[in-house]
Fold this sequence. Notes:
Elements: H1 10-42, H2 46-83, H3 86-113, H4 115-122, H5 126-139, H6 143-158, H7 163-185, H8 195-220, H9 228-232, H10 236-270, H11 272-288, H12 290-308, H13 312-348, H14 353-368, H15 370-386, H16 390-415, H17 420-444
Amino acid sequence: MVSLSYKKNKTFYKLLFTIMLPIAFQNLISSSLNLVDNVMIGQLGETHIAAVGLANQVYFLLNLILFGANSGASIFIAQYWGKKDIENIKKGVGIGLSFGLVIATLFFAASFFFPKLILGFLSKDFEVVTLGSSYLKIVSLSYLFTALSFSFGFSSRSIGKPKLPMIASIISLLVNTVLNYILIFGYIGFPALGVVGAAIATLIARTIELIIIVVHVYRNTPEIAVKLSDIKAITKDEIIKIGRKALPVIFNETFWALGMTTYALVYARIGTNAAASVMISNTVNSLFMVISFGLGNAAAVMLGNTLGADEIETAIDYNSKFMTLSLLGGAVVGLLIFLLSPPIVYRLYNLTPEAYEITMYTMRIMALFMPFKFYNTILVIGTLRSGGDTFFSMVLEIGCVWLIGVPLAFIGAFVWNLPVYWVVALVSLEEIAKLILGIPRVVSKKWAKNIVSAH
């Protein structure tokens, strides 16, 4: 029986809240930034919502590839921090930064020069593609800044200092909110730019976020303040060592993201109302999911630090608590979404009655699967990756998405011609499969390894 008593687990909860709360708050800020974009664009109608949502699928894919690369590097950074090995921490940061910049450059080039080609693959609605392209071309300029912010943010969390990315995100949100209001609708002398205004606001906000992070890192966080000499000192063997654990995470996130993009393609082909309702549901749900991501990232750091310090039994004990908390947290959040989504959507979005009804059904179905999503977030991000069990987590996630979720999405939408909310329900069955297949791996304790002890 897992004990969650605060009196018996003061050390656990002190570490958990120190790491989790800033991460959860930062995720809340990031989700709020997306919500601000969507709510303000939502005042222009469903076509504009669908256009921005479609364009953001490109950022979503980049975001997850960067997440994969930096998650892989952070496995080592967290364990090296458990050993207090600063030299190797900087090498891990350097590898994460270098890979992120290469990927972001490719995404920028494709999005800036071929926006209509990319979005035309996702939707056949000419107006949606045209509006989305104007947004995507401008936002793509921020991709390199995002890659740098990601790497430093992940590295900061991995050494138990999560406040920096949180503070940068708060300032970024404030800037984005004010500029959205001014540029989308045209105030204080500026013209009303619509989706172009939203894109410019996002670009400026992400630029400011990066400046804050870089200045703080190089002034106050020497452990991750990488210099060119640190990157040059990285050997081929060290790249291979980190690459063996990082590549499965990168493939995992990339193919998982492609799966999510495929879902978005299916929803878009069902109709503009369907695409808008799913985008709204995902945006609102992301506000509630910050608890899950905060818990998952806290698990990755705490488990990684304890494994790196050779405290294997402590890591196993911590993991049992994380798993129990994930199911309880998911049930509570699912209930909150179920109860609060009607007033939130009604007040924030200017939807037709039909679009509102579709969105409500979609959100309620998502709420029912929330405990499974919470558990799987901790399982993949925290448990499996903290000990370097990245190949199994890759097979688990990619297998469930592409062998269960994607086929069911196509069958539900194009064979059975179901409404979008029932297609979402079919897709969500992959979360149940992931949980069932993942539990034996957790129980086996094969994930609980110190992968830096020999170095």
